[in-house]
Design goal:
Blueprint lengths: L2 E5 L53 H5 L4 E5 L8 H5 L5 E4 L9 H6 L5 E4 L9 H7 L2 E4 L5 H16 L2 H9 L5 H5 L9 E5 L3 H10 L5 E5 L6 H7 L1 E3 L3 H4 L5 E4 L13 H6 L4 E5 L8 H10 L2 E6 L30 H20 L8 E4 L2 E2 L1 H6 L9
Parallel strand pairs: 1-2, 1-3, 3-4, 4-5, 6-7, 6-9, 7-8, 9-10, 10-11
Antiparallel strand pairs: 5-12, 12-13
Amino acid sequence: MAKVLCVLYDDPIDGYPTSYARDDLPRVDHYPGGQTTPTPQGTDFTPGHLLGSVSGGLGLRQFLESRGHTLVVTSDKDQDGSVFDRELPYADVVISQPFWPAYLTADRIARAKNLKLAITAGIGSDHVDLDAAIARGVTVAEVTYSNSISVAEHVVMMTLSLVRNYLPSHQWVLDGGWNIADCVARSYDLEGMHVGTVAAGRIGTAVLRRLAPFDVKLHYTDNHRLPESVEQELGLTFHPSAADMVPYCDVVTINAPLHPQTEGLFDEKLIGAMKRGAYLINTARAKICDRDAVDHALRSGQLAGYAGDVWYPQPAGPDHPWRTMPHHGMTPHISGSTLSAQARYAAGTREILESWFAGAPIRDEYLIVDKGALAGTGAHSYSTTTPAAR
């Protein structure tokens, strides 16, 4: 029997919900491109309920315990002597979400003598040291595509919020004001602007498709160029690198995975090469941007706005400069954790577990590391410092 250690975020401050704003979810059975949504043999949760918090438990407790497995669910992961660190040496499986990541460092993987499988309930497995997982033979999997559209919608929302100066305008209403001049002094139309994405994978391409109807000029850079038919359909301009693209763009959105080639990409030099008054949107990973360079660019006016919902570390401390820098639209890491997305990534987590317990292959699109090498989606999206994995 296996021990499953699941790290999830805390319940709402007023307790786990007993009712919800909506009674159901739209049915989505496949993603753009044809990949089916998760297809577990069964589920023990109601779609649309809060599953990503401790009490929700990703809907896994009945499934695991009825089969004799042990499930430990905690939000305590970072402080000395945390529940996560105490339970980790005995865990066969570790599950966490990018929004509340259990950082599986090389040291932690070395101490996790029984660890065989690390699952990201969602997408993005950079909180796992992939080199250490490869060296130890730990399988790493994530529920690819489960919340890609959720994130793409968030990018569009943040883009419009910054360009139209929505959040400060809303604050005037909350404060009882009617200060139209203050609201519109930083408000522009998105129409006609040049918008570029760093990476055009599932999320980046979904962002491009959703922004095309706004009559913007679309740009992208990616290691894998899109088919010519897609470029023509959306009127895309391809650039070989971010450095080549950003001088043309009024809005830049980052939709790349974090790996050694993207870490620190948006430093003072690259941000300085952007148009003065451009907007930067980052729902990918915080470490793709230099923390202080973003803060300085907003204060100097080089950037007109920065929005995102990714931080490092997560959760961010109360003194993190991104909480207080001007002209920002930051949220905690929520873009991919809508109740709609939770139903998919909870089902996908169970699908991965069902396959693993049965000794059956895990879907190739869910695999990041397997059999001592990058695999599946991981081979396409990630790079490591392990030569044998290339």
